[in-house]
Amino acid sequence: MRCFALLVGLTLLFTTGCGSSSKAVDSASAAPSAACEVRLLKDGQVVLEYRTNGAGNAAVQIDDDMSLFLNSPDADHSLVLNVNRPQVGTFPFGDDTVPGNASLTLVSVSQSNVRPEAGEVKFTQLTSTRCSGNFQTSAKVPFDEHAYVLEGSFTNFPVHKQ
Asked: What Å distances lie between residue 37 and 15, 19, 22, 94, 151, CA to CA?
C-alpha cells in the first residue's frame, strides 16, 4: 500500500509539475504556492539545504495515510514524510503504521541512509485542500558517528485525496 501511495504521489506530482492541466488559472484567484525548506546539519554545520516554491510539492492522502513530498528544484533531493491519521498537532517519528506516528525518507544524490531517531512532525494547518507545518529530528547515518539534525517546513501544500 505504501509503495502504491508513493507511485500515485510521484505520478501526480510529475503531471502537476509539468503543467498537464488544460484549465486556465487566473493568477488573482490561484491558490498560494506550495513552499518547502529542508536542511540537514552535520555536527551543527549545514551539509544539505534547499528551498522550493511552486510545482513538485504536494501531499497525497489515501485512506488514513498522508504522504508529503518535499522536492528540491534540481531534483537532486526528495524528502517524503508519511503520517498515519494526520490532523493539526504533533506526530513523533516511529512506526508510521501505528496511529499518531510519522516516518521520514530522504533520497539524495549527496547524502544516503539518513535515518530519523527522535523528533516530530507538526501540522499547524490541515484542511481538506491544504496543509502546513514543520519537522525536526535527530538522525543517524550508518557507519558514521557524527551528530545529524534534519529539519524543515512545508507551507500551503495542496492535499490530493486518492
From this structure: 22, 23, 29, 22, 8
